[in-house]
Amino acid sequence: MTEIALVGLSHHVAPVELRERVALDADQAAMLARSLGSAVCLSTCNRTEVYLESGHEDDAAAALIALAGEPLDDVLYRLHDDDAALHLFRVAAGLDSLVPGEGEILGQVRGAFEAAEPGPLLDRVFRQALALGKRVRSETAIGESPASVPSAAAALASQVFGDLEGRRVLLVGAGRSGERAASNLASRGAVIAYVANRSIDAARGLAARFGGEGVPLASPAEALADVDVVVSSTGAPGFVLRPEDVPAKRHRPLFFIDIAVPRDLDPAIAALDGCFLYDIDDLEAVVAETLAGRRVEAERAEALAADEVERFRSWRASLDVVPAIASLRARAEEIRVAELAKLGGRVTDDERAKLDSVTAQIVGKLLHLPTVRMKEAAVGPDGVLYADAVRHLFGLDEEER
Amino acid sequence: MVEALFWPVLLGYGEAAVAYASPRTSRAATWGVRVGWLAQTALLVAQARRSDGFPWATFAGSLNLFVWLVVTTYLIWGCRPRFRLLGLGVMPPAALLFVVARLGGGFGDGAGSHYPNLFLVLHVGFVLAAFAGFTLAAGLAGLYLWEERRLKRRSPDILRLRVPPLQALERLTQRTIVLSLPLLTLGLAAGLVRLRQQGDSTDPLEWLTVGTWFLYGGFLVARPVGRRAAYVALLGFALVVVSRLALAGGHFA
Known about the structure:
The complex is a heterodimer. Chain A contains 14 helices and 10 strands.
């Protein structure tokens, strides 16, 4: 019987130096999958896995070892059938990810599946995995919470403003961490309007990348009247912004993100009406809390994945009785047609049509219950016995012979 | 028929009042609101068909109609998951007031009022619809203040318990007041015209309602933002509550 096999390695067992050697881009992964027959190759920064239906398990392992350039005995895992299906379901649901519930993996699974030429078994299990991935994201809150400081900052800004589309951002400092937070805001539609930095050239350079304006660090307060969000991450030893720098007459909130250590923004700003200030400790506390929430949701997602494996198992088991059901229906149809033919010219065309319809309905109704029962029994351990009994009782084997 | 519909309404609103407490059952709560609202709509229709006049001209009757209007306003946009906490604020009082309406005899046919039906529909209907809107605006303002406080305090669980963004709450509060004030204006105008025709003197409730109108009118002119806007919406609601209580003093007598 055809089986599903999985050969691969992931962040759980392999260090990044090894993972980057076996990582494949989308074209290479598709090529490897096609070279192995009915297979799907999923390669991301956290895993390279080959799902097979064709039995080329050793070939897949050899391909990965060749990519790694070293034996992979300690890190390569091999899973089969239900275990392989469960693993794929957990991967698609984001449960096997470095950050539980991250959403990117579902798109990567879809990409790998669409680029490959899977057989019916892999086709089914991947479609189930994709459906499960969507279901987990809609029925649990596992993917809702931010898992990093920049994404937490952006999520908090959204909590104040709602949609960040068109919201204007002042980035104070041209460092890496501030840039990451600004990028996260920009990816949600915010506009990086100003970059303020001690070196005006660095400010202009970074501002140009975001389509904003570079301003000297001495004058960020002037830009405050024109922005909704301030992200600060300079290396300044003291406060860069104080309450007196914030315009008193504003008709909209101001959201301050201070990811600098030592802090750039005077904590007294938080006391101003309509001003919200989060420093690095606050943001890390929010991330820790949301990750704890993700773990709770992950338990619900695990239950959904387990249900999906049960469904897959039932479907696979039903495949065992499909040939018997098909033979039984074919035999019944053959008898029906033969008996109708015996009527010859004793009936009119109109009567023949009516008889054809009635006998087809009778056969259909008679076979409906046995078909349903066989499919139900197929899930149990004696499902094959049912199929054998049907073959024996109706002489289907003899006919096949 | 009317009495028989009491239980489905109470069951729907009661279930919603309890189920809104947990995010996992908030979908069931929303269905409770919908089922309860449908049953109460049927109840009001049955009341109207049975009555020769306007059946909600008593204190308890108007309470019955008021609950329906509040839930209707809530249903328009409040059933989204992020507004679960608003449902938790709206549905328990709605269920309680519905019971009070029944105990007070608010399911009767309202016979005996000496006011013309058209006047009652315009005056009571519009004023109650406006009050329902102000009630919801107050709920939104309360949610705004609570969420703003959490953001100010930098609660680590701020993103775990999702509520609508602050600016969305502020905008919705404002819009609800913008829509409700014209209704109050029409209802008040109908009452004042009637008063002039009859040559009656104004009672304290009428002065209070005029005061409420000025407060919300001032809100729309000044367009306060942030916390101030929320406080004004809550102050207006306090006047609405006092008006509702004063109504029990026999405004329709």
